[in-house]
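Final report, Chapter 2: Outcomes

The project's central promise was a pipeline that accepts a single protein chain and returns its three-dimensional structure in a standardized token representation, suitable for archiving and comparison. That pipeline is now operational. To close this chapter, we reproduce one record exactly as it appears in the project archive, with the input sequence first and the structure output second.
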Amino acid sequence: SFDTTISIKQGNYLYKIASKDILLVETIDHATTIYTNESKYVNYTPLKTYEELLKDSGFVKINRNTIVNMDWVKRINLKENYVEVDKHKIAISRTNRPLLLQKYGEV
């Protein structure tokens, strides 16, 4: 997958983050959180924006509110239908499951 860098505005600061360092991006109540290994960044940029920016960098949408970096997926629980990314367990939606499993097989 193709490595890219995204700019993230948080408060008065602008950060540059390499896509390979991002574990997942999640939206809850319009607030979007970008999780990296070292920290997390919160802003109000729609998930759709990050989806577009990161779609060629190995990110897959696993439910309505979350995209994950496939390189960081530790394992997928097929019975309980969630994916483990670092210490996070994220539910997989039925519609996104086939693509996730296909991409996981390609990694």
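Archive annotation: Helices lie at 47-54, 97-106.
This record, like all others produced under the grant, will remain available to the consortium after the project formally closes.
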